[in-house]
Design goal:
By secondary structure, this protein is α/β, with parallel strands linked by helices. The protein is built from four helices and ten strands. The strands form two sheets. The protein has a six-stranded mixed beta sheet. Strands 7, 8, 9 and 10 form a four-stranded mixed beta sheet that branches. The N and C termini lie far apart (39 Å).
Length: 217
C-alpha cells in the first residue's frame, strides 16, 4: 500500500498526492514496519520512482516535502537539488515545510512550481530554538490554476497563475484568542511596523522568481 499510486479526480482533472520527510526527529519505525513513514533519505530513488509512475497515471502530481534547515528564509542545497530531481521526475506542485520560516516560491522548468517552505500556519512557537517572533508567527498561503486541454486527442495539463500571500498568528497579551490574519489586513496594534515585515516577506517570496503574484484575489 505504501508503494501504491492512488489517483483522485477533481473537475475532470486527475491528480496523485504523496508526502516524504527527511526523518522523524530521532524516532524510527518499528522493525518490519518501515512502510509507516516515507523517509526520502532512506531511499531517494524510491521517492523519484513513485513520482515517475504517478506522472504516467495522473494529470497532476503533487508532493509534500518535510525538508530544509530550520529558521532560514532560503532553501538549502538539499532542497534545491531535490526540487529539481522531483520536477525532472514529473512532479508538478511541490509543497515544502519544516524551516518554520517562509521561503521563496518559484517555477522549475516549464511545468513545475515549488513552494520551498510554508512557514508556520497557526503557531504559538517561541524563539528559544531560533528565528524571530515575527518569522515563526508567519505562514505562507499559495494557490495555482490547473488547466487541462484536449486537442485532436492530445491532452495537456498546465500550471499557471501562481499566487502567494502571508498570514500572521495574531494573539492577545497572554497568548489567548489565537487566530490567523492576512498580513495585509493587520493593524499596528496587532503587530507594530507590520507593513515593514510584510514587505520583507514579499522579498523572500520573490527572491527566486518575481513573477509570483502577491495576493490570492
Amino acid at each position: 500500500e505504501q508503494d501504491a499510486v492512488n489517483v483522485h479526480e477533481c473537475n475532470g482533472i486527475t491528480y496523485a498526492f504523496n508526502a516524504w520527510t527527511y526523518g522523524m526527529n530521532g524516532n524510527v519505525c518499528p522493525d518490519g514496519e518501515e512502510y509507516l513513514v516515507n523517509c526520502y533519505r532512506d531511499d531517494p530513488q524510491k521517492m523519484l520512482n513513485w513520482v515517475k509512475e504517478a506522472d504516467q497515471k495522473a494529470d497532476v502530481v503533487i508532493v509534500s516535502m518535510h525538508w530544509g534547515t530550520e529558521y532560514i528564509s532560503q532553501p538549502d542545497e538539499e532542497q534545491l537539488s531535490l526540487a529539481q530531481q522531483l520536477a525532472d521526475a514529473g512532479a508538478d506542485i511541490i509543497i515544502g515545510n519544516h524551516p518554520h520560516n517562509i521561503q521563496p516560491v518559484t517555477h522549475i522548468g516549464d511545468h513545475a512550481v515549488v513552494f520551498y517552505a510554508l512557514g508556520n500556519g497557526i503557531s504559538s512557537q517561541d524563539t528559544t530554538m531560533g528565528g524571530t517572533p515575527e518569522s515563526v508567527l508567519t505562514g505562507l498561503i499559495g494557490s495555482v490554476t490547473v488547466t487541462k486541454t484536449e486537442t485532436d486527442g492530445t491532452v495537456q495539463t498546465s500550471i499557471s497563475d501562481v499566487r502567494a500571500d502571508v498570514i500572521y498568528t495574531a494573539h492577545d497579551d497572554h497568548w489567548g484568542n489565537i487566530h490567523g490574519r492576512m498580513f495585509k489586513d493587520l493593524t499596528n496594534e496587532e503587530l507594530p511596523d507590520h507593513d515593514t515585515y510584510y514587505q520583507d516577506d514579499i522579498r523572500i517570496i520573490h527572491a527566486m522568481d518575481d513573477s509570483i503574484h502577491i495576493g490570492l484575489e
